[in-house]
Amino acid sequence: MHMPTQTNHPTTDAVSSSAILTMLLFFCLSTTLMQGIPSLAALPRNRIIGGCLFLFTLTLAVLASLRLTHRLTENHMVFFLIFWGMLFHCSYVLLSGLYDRQHDEGFYTGIATGQVNPGHIGYIEYIYKFRKLPDMNPYQFFSYYHPPLHYILSGLWLIFLTSLGMAEELAFENLQILPLFYSGLFMLLTYRILKRTGAEGNGLYAGLLLTALHPALAVMSGSINNDMLSSVLLACAILTTLRWLQEKSWKNLLLIAVSIGFGMLCKINTAVIALPVGLLFLIDFTGTLRRGKKTDILRSFRRYLLFGLTAGSIGLCWIVRNLIRFHVKPGISSATEDSIMYTGNYSLWARLGLPSLSDWHFSFPFHPLSGDTVHNTWVIMFQTSLFTEEYPAQLTGLPLFLCQASYISAILFATASVPLFFAAQYKKQRKGTKETGLESLFLSTGYLAFLFSFALFSVKYPYTCSSDFRYIVICLIYAAIGLSDSSRLYPGNTFMGIFSRAVRRGVCITMGLMVLVYMSWKQW
Q1: CA pair distance 313, 226, nearest whole angstrom
Q2: For burial by CB atoms within 10 Å, which of 88, 256, 461, 483 has the most?
Q3: Each residue of 91-140: pLDDT tens digit?
Q4: DSSP tally for the chain: helices H, then strands E
Q5: What is the DSSP string of 159-186?
Q6: Spans in the chain with pLDDT lower than 70
Q7: Residue among 88, 72, 47, 37 nearest 512 (CA)
Q8: How many alpha carbons fall within 13 Å on the CB side of residue 212?
Q9: Prediction pTM value
């Protein structure tokens, strides 16, 4: 079905950010009240699912009415897609408790005790309980080595909720609201990035649908760790860099620096985005040197010096603090070789090479954590991208069939989307302007940088948990760009045009199957 398009200049913001932000805040406030008011928090599962299905059906009827009366615009479609994404995420949060499907969550004992607890929840509780950053070696307690931005914001959120009189138990349950809000921002930023790259029509809708309904983002919207916020800050860095390519102003340069700096203050591996950004800066500065004007060279040098000081002072302050106070270098706490998740006994090819058919585990496509059962990075990545680290051993019948179909479909169309992305960027490089050539270079090197860093991370820390898709969820934005760019660049009657359309439809079908799985499966 071909939706109506509304042509926009790539730099034009078609849908009001304030309207989408208002919608995001409404969803977050509603979820806070439903989890924070005891009578609403006790609502049974079928009431929650029924309410979500009613809202989905209602908005679908509105969309159909607009289409039948020829009033459906791109603005409407974008708003509906983000609305459905938030509806999906909110339903997941309401159906999942504080300790459900988390990673290294730890636990809390409450403000009435002086106990210091491990894990992400313990880290947040420390700031909430003692009103300060942890003053001990960050490697004394698991998860405390992470930079503090996410934990500061979460601690302040707990302080705010409890100061309003919310019971402590319900306030901790509402730690999920911040990642829920971040997941909405991720969708909004994806839309802005797609418009910045010239997306429109069906290509725009397919790319946005991917991030709105992808199950990994739904799970992360209810995760109390720092993954969702770091992904939002990475998206900010991508968007501000694209803006800088079109307008090389001080403002845009500082926005890139702030995005990268705060990204590193949230999670150190967000520094990977500095590689493609630095490449653009190097090309720009080299061009300035070739022109030979001393005033331009001095101005350019001052700009990049300010960028480095801004990004470095924000992003490295946690690392420098720990080096000075505790003499510890940045890194992560990892399990021992005795861990069930250890994969270091297998060859590099077995972990990073192409998986055999038996390695994929099509009959039961869930991640068992065991490195002896599944040790290939790409298999684990696909399993966790759809089903996180759940292993529902009793699952049979139609629900299992839907999961199997979604898994096979995701592998096929996600794999196909990779060459589609690079083919579109190559075409922009060859046929476009200098600006679009730099844009394609930035996007291509960024996508490769994240994929290589993910592979290297799984080698450096040889555990199955290192191959979790949540570490590269930012790659969904690159996949979305590939869907939208290929839709625009390749005519529908050519081989690439037919291939692009097939991939877009396959991605949409896969996301629809996964929503059906998540909304019908009592595992959640």
Answers
A1: 20
A2: 483
A3: 999 999 899 989 889 999 999 998 999 999 999 999 999 999 998 999 88
A4: 22, 0
A5: HHHHHTT--HHHHHHGGGHHHHHHHHHH
A6: 1-15, 334-335, 523-524
A7: 88
A8: 22
A9: 0.94
